[in-house]
Amino acid sequence: MLYIYIDRLTKIKVMNNKQVMLEALEAQLSVKETEVTTYTQEVFNPQVQDLNDSILEWFHQNIRLSLIKAEIGSDSLTMHTQKDRWANRIQFNIRNYWREKETPEFEFNWSSGNTYSDPNDIEYGITIGRVCQNHDTIKDLFINEWTVKYKDYQKKLRALQEPVNSLQSSIHALKYEMIDDQKESYMKPGFSLKLKSYKSIEWVDSSDDSSNDRELQDKPGELKLQTGRSKYDYMFVHEFTVNKKVGYKYDLTILDHNDKSRNVQVTTKQFEDFIDSVTSWENSGAQDRTDRAVQRFNEIMETIAKEKELASKRSTSIRLPNLS
Fold first, then answer.
1. 58 is in which domain, residue-wise?
2. Distance from C-alpha of 154 to C-alpha of 145, rounded to nearest angstrom
3. Residues 104-115: pLDDT tens digits?
């Protein structure tokens, strides 16, 4: 609840408009996400690229290795060789253990496959040997310089990402609150709802018996309502009205899939399960089903158009024999 004070003694209690709050949070999120994206593209990525280039240059100058790319992370470094595939890459890692007393280990990983007469394979073997010779130096730079710089860049980026994560969490929680409010309102006596319609691909009558006589049609929404103990005791509902709650049951008037009005009583659990599906359908289910149908329909029409175009080209390429 929000309170508005008319004067020092009088206040009016006002319901909090959660939709307005949601829109405000989403607007803030959009701004913060733009800030993160801009910083990532204009600051963080160039910093990491410069660091990768400097690492690659160090390997070229100090170990004279024929490497083509370096990729640094918070606890890893991957070096790409001339034959750029996973089996011919060199990787350095820091392995952290879940036991606090155990000291993190520095790992040096490479492929132990067979070496053939391919010059790239020979070069890879030479590369591994030179890395082993300089193992301690690489380890020192990796732990005390390269990953330290990367983590510093990453720390600044994460500081910008924290408000984004916080806003996303708030929006997620608020949406769940709004859904709960929606469900509560759906179950109140006097509430009535006609389910949202959706679009479906349907065949239509064709005068020339063509194969592409399909169109998108609006279909009434319908959901299953369990009405008894057996799994077969159910009906599909287009509309419903909550008449009253009688003990642990709800008295409803429903319009079934045959557009016939019925009066039914269902348990609280059965009605809650139905309302869960109604809420999902109203918020996203109907639109999702429509979107899938529209996408599929456009794909079908595109395929038919291509087939017609191909058939037309084939027919024009046929030449009648010269009978003269």
1. 20-169
2. 14
3. 677 777 765 555
